[in-house]
Specification:
341 residues, alpha/beta, TIM Barrel, 8-stranded parallel sheet, 13 helices, 44% helix
Length: 341
């Protein structure tokens, strides 16, 4: 598989200028707009330029030798945008950021921005093990033209919530981009409680939360307490429908890479058209696949395998992860057969 290097600096700046993206710009040109709604107390829950809808937690395509396939990444971006996704998030856990070098991370973000060409907002995952590294990755994302960043607690170190607040505050002060906080204690070992997230809502650039505990009561509590200041995204695929119905502004998921049309259609039915009966029917066809992905302990591996089964291969995960077994592939194939993608 041929791999393409990022745009040279002069060409990149020229291209960004044509599509209205400049370093530090809050929203990418062409970002879709959510009408204002009301949160707790009747105050506006989102600005007219708020992020909303279905955001794909992008896979990072690999060659058979586990090198990043940049051309293939651009093809994935094009397919997702044509399918109607509202935004893209490269360099999250589904994108295997932890297995990429700093140069590869920069190149993945550059290729994503180039392919998106301002049509949808791109939020960059900028996680790392130390505050100084997260700031460096976040400033780089801002310079390259990202519409925002996504941050989870640093891995392995297990900071206390007070330490984590100081960490987020330092990043918030270092950049001018909107920040989406990502709460997934099953991955990070740190649970960002509603009290903590309400405290973070006071930071200048913290605008969104991807809530991935899998607890519906947690999401509704965040909406009640912070919905007038934070846009809450569902980050647990198996709770997507109920999350959208109670007021989540969108859904961030990795399965979007494989089934983008179904994800977008669910959002349209539940949020834009208010057709609950049709939304339920579609969601129930998606559930076997979503439950397998969420509960199988191999989320990234299954997402990449699903892309291949549906005719859009993105290569293997980078080791230490390995492709699913033949038995797991059979289960995945059966689940996907029920989805009218």
């Amino acid at each position: 598989m041929k791999t393409r290097s990022p745009l040279p600096e002069r060409r990149r700046k020229k291209a960004e200028g044509r599509r209205g993206i400049h370093p530090g710009r809050i929203m990418a040109a062409g970002a879709k707009v959510l009408p204002q709604s009301c949160g707790a107390g009747g105050s506006p829950a989102a600005s007219p330029a708020a992020l909303h809808g279905v955001f794909a937690a992008l896979v990072t395509p690999m060659t058979s030798s586990q090198e990043v396939a940049y051309d293939q990444l651009e093809a994935v971006v094009e397919h997702l945008i044509r399918a109607g996704v509202h935004g893209l998030i490269p360099l999250g856990s589904t994108g295997e950021y932890y297995a990429l070098s700093p140069a590869e991370r920069r190149d993945v973000l550059t290729a994503t921005l180039r392919a998106a060409a301002g049509r949808v907002p791109v939020l960059a995952g900028t996680n790392a093990g130390s505050t100084r590294d997260v700031i460096a990755f976040s400033r780089e994302a801002e310079t390259l033209g990202a519409a925002g960043i996504m941050l989870a607690p640093p891995y392995y170190s297990l900071p206390s919530l007070d330490e984590l607040f100081v960490h987020f505050r330092a990043i918030d002060r270092a950049i001018g981009l909107p920040i989406m906080l990502y709460n997934y204690p099953g991955r990070t070992g740190v649970d960002m409680t509603p009290d903590f997230l309400e405290r973070c809502a006071g930071l200048a650039h913290v605008r969104y939360v991807k809530e991935s505990t899998g607890q519906m009561a947690r999401l509704t509590e965040l909406l009640r307490r912070c919905g007038d200041r934070l846009g809450i995204f569902c980050g647990c695929d198996t709770l997507a429908l109920e999350s959208l119905l109670v007021g989540a502004v969108g859904w961030v998921g990795g399965v979007v890479n494989a089934l983008p049309k179904s994800h977008v259609r669910l959002y349209q039915l539940a949020v834009e058209q208010g057709d609950l009966a049709a939304a339920r029917r579609l969601f129930f066809t998606l559930l076997p696949t979503l439950e397998l992905m969420e509960g199988g302990g191999k989320y990234t591996q299954f997402v990449k395998a699903a892309c291949a089964l549906l005719g859009r291969p993105v290569g293997p995960p980078r080791q230490p992860l390995r492709p699913p077994s033949s038995a797991e592939m059979a289960r995945l194939r059966l689940a996907l057969a029920a989805v009218p993608e």
